[in-house]
Specification:
single chain, alpha+beta, five-stranded antiparallel sheet, disordered N terminus, binds the ligand Nc1nc2c(c(=O)[nH]1)N[C@H]1C(S)=C(S)[C@@H](COP(=O)(O)O)O[C@H]1N2, binds molybdenum atom
C-alpha cells in the first residue's frame, strides 16, 4: 500500500537515483537561498525523474476550458479569522512565506513572488466535495515534488503535513486548526501542485489565498487552503487528534481517493 512507502523504497531500483538530487554549487543572482536552490534543482530534473513519478500512479482526468464551471463554490473557511491573516492580506501577502521543514536536509522559506517564478503547472480538473457537489476549475502552481526534492527528504520521511492559517473550529487544544497530510507518492505525483492561480487569475481569498494544495485524485477536504507550512514527518500521530487531518480527526477517511 502506498502509505507504507518510505523515501528509501521510493528511490530503490531507480536509475534516476541521486543524480536528480545532485546540486551544484553555482550561485544564481536574486531571490532567497531557498529559491536559488530550487532553480538549480529544476534545471537538473530529468525526464527519467518525471517518468519515475508518473509510473506509479495514473493521472486524474484533465478537462478543457469549455468544461470549466461558470461558478466554483467556495467551501469550509472562506476567510481565515484573526489579525495574523488580516495583516498578510493587507500587504498582498508580501510578508507571507511558505516554510518547508521537518525531516528535510535543508528547510526552505519561500515568498509568493519566488514561488511564482518557479516552473509551474496548469491543470483543469474536477473537484469533488463529500458534501455532494463538484466543480471543474483551472489551477496553476508549483509542483510540490520540486520543493521536496530541493529540501531533500530524510530516509524515514513518509508524509507531507500541510499546515493552514485557519481555525475551522475554536477549540481549547488548538485541534481546530485546519491541516492535512498526504503520503510521498501523492506528494511527488505530477498533478500535486501548490496553487497560487485559479481560473486564469490570482487565487481568491475564498479559495485559499495565497496558496492551496491541489491533490487531484483525492476528495475536496484533502486540498488544504491557506497554506503556511509544509512539515515532513514519519508519523502524524502527534498532530491534531492524530488522524492526519482536520476532517480525518472528525471521522473522515485519511486516504479519501476518488
Ligand atoms: N484550510 C482549509 N482548507 C480546506 C477547507 C477549509 O475549511 N480550510 N475545506 C476543504 C473542503 S471540505 C473543500 S470541499 C475544499 C473547498 O475548496 P474551495 O473553497 O476552493 O471550493 O477545501 C478544502 N480545504
Ligand atoms: Mo469538501
Amino acid at each position: 500500500m502506498s502509505t507504507l512507502l518510505t523515501r528509501r523504497k521510493f528511490l530503490a531500483g531507480s536509475s534516476v537515483g541521486m543524480a536528480a538530487f545532485a546540486l551544484t554549487g553555482c550561485d544564481l543572482p536574486g531571490g532567497s537561498e531557498s529559491y536559488r536552490r530550487i532553480i538549480k534543482m529544476a534545471e537538473s530534473l530529468t525526464q527519467g525523474t518525471q517518468r519515475l513519478f508518473l509510473s506509479d500512479k495514473a493521472l486524474a482526468r484533465e478537462f478543457t476550458e469549455a468544461d470549466m464551471s461558470p461558478v466554483f463554490k467556495a467551501n469550509g473557511t472562506k476567510h481565515p479569522d484573526g489579525e495574523a491573516y488580516a495583516r498578510l492580506l493587507e500587504t498582498n501577502f508580501s510578508d507571507w512565506r511558505l516554510v518547508v521543514d521537518g525531516m528535510v536536509n535543508k528547510p526552505l522559506s519561500l515568498s509568493l513572488a519566488e514561488l511564482k517564478q518557479l516552473p509551474s503547472r496548469t491543470q483543469i480538473t474536477r473537484h469533488d466535495c463529500v458534501e455532494g457537489w463538484s466543480a471543474i476549475g483551472k489551477w496553476t502552481g508549483v509542483p510540490l515534488g520540486l520543493l521536496l526534492q530541493t529540501a531533500g527528504l530524510a530516509p524515514d520521511a513518509r508524509y507531507a503535513v500541510l499546515h493552514c492559517a485557519d481555525k475551522y473550529e475554536k477549540t481549547l487544544d488548538d485541534s481546530g486548526r485546519y491541516y492535512e497530510s498526504i503520503d510521498l507518492v501523492d506528494a511527488f505525483h505530477p498533478q500535486t501542485i501548490l496553487a497560487y492561480g485559479m481560473n486564469g487569475g490570482t487565487l481568491p481569498v475564498e479559495h485559499g489565498a495565497p496558496l492551496r494544495l491541489r491533490v487531484e485524485r483525492h476528495l475536496g477536504y484533502k486540498h488544504a487552503k491557506y497554506l503556511m507550512r509544509i512539515e515532513i514527518v514519519d508519523s502524524f500521530a502527534h498532530l491534531g487528534r492524530g488522524h492526519g487531518g482536520f476532517w480525518e480527526d472528525r471521522g473522515y477517511e485519511w486516504y479519501a481517493g476518488i
